[in-house]
Amino acid sequence: MTKIRSKSTLALAAMVALPVLSWAGSAEKAVAAEPAAAKPSITGNLSLNLDSHFVSFGQDIWGSGQGLHTVLFHPTLELSKAINSDFKLILGTWWDVNDRAKSSIGNRIQEVDVWAGGAYTTGILTTTALYQQWMYLNQNEQAVELKFAVDTFLKPSLLIHERIATGYESGTVVVLSAGYDFKAGPVSFSVPASLEYETSGYHPGGTKAGIGYGSLGLTGSVPVDFVSKDATFSMGVTGYMTNSDMIPTNPKKNFLTFTTGISIPF
Q1: Any alpha helices (H) in 156-241, and if so which ranges?
Q2: Which tens digits make up the pLDDT trace of 135-183?
Q3: How far apart are CA 199 and CA 4, in angstroms?
Q4: Is 9 exposed, middle or buried (0-12, 13-18, 19+ CB in 10 A)?
């Protein structure tokens, strides 16, 4: 009788345990099969910068020279829409905000730039093509840009900027750039350098074609996660050496610029 009861107890335990074990296995498979969260197809970056100068291809637009009395507010917003893993669409805007002159746009907004285009990446090479409009002083300067950037040591890039003859003389600027990045504790440093070639008359009063300027900078940035995930605060300085034959309106041929700001990706 005892043997019969033992067998009955084992049978009952097996009947109870089998569904439980089966459910546990199914739950484990369900967890394992849960897909990873998909990356958003639209991303962006908001930058809020305070600058001592507004430099456009070597030209000191507001004639700040070596002075630090000028503070210019330059917000930038750029959005990217991923079409696939290699190609994305780009839409962006940049503003020049200050009280150096009466605004033709409104309040203290002196200039609004907008651009649209796309970028295609294959291997370590990214090719970016943009159409741009720079709106200031009741004018609309238009240009197309083509940039080749290589994701390797010193991050070399080549930018070709072609101004369209719509109220302006056409002109071409070519900028060769490189940079070196390194870290020291929590601070990330960047040392960018560039050399620019331009056609005759690209800048007002320019009489020759040739090397317009060279620049060398140093920027340090730290994470500010309390503002937003991956946000950074940065400070930097850039030195310019310009050629007065190409850029005669600069008050100083050689000058330093300073910048500080926050970058918020989303």
Answers
A1: none
A2: 999 999 999 999 999 999 999 999 999 999 988 889 999 999 999 999 9
A3: 103
A4: exposed
